[in-house]
Amino acid sequence: MPYTSDIHHRRSIRLKEYDYSLEGLYSVMVCCQDMKCRFGKIKNGKMVVNDFGKIAHDEWCKLSERYSNVMLDAFQIMPNHMHGIIAITEPHDGRGVLHTPNNKTVIDKFHCGDGVCPPASSPKGGTHDSSD
What we know:
Oligomer: single chain
Number of helices: 3
Number of strands: 5
Radius of gyration: 15 Å
């Protein structure tokens, strides 16, 4: 069933009083506009990324290079969204570090350069799971 604002009433599960710039593990989900399948498709039960999926993969993998207080864990690119786990290793304020979700710094620029991410063209199909 497609999303319809008249019948689907989504509410934020974020804690209003919590500072999301604090150290910790955070689950992140990035959705494509209008939930269009922009990152690729599922073929034979496997995710196959297209050029946009490769860009999403590569930019995700650059997050830890761009932000010194970020470590990346497992992530999964899907046709119309992606999931990932980000560890904020120390709270920071200032240029080049992860900001709170309210100012959307990561979402706007979402850029793993720590050597653990495979290229998007790898057999993993543009995904990474740190348990491998």
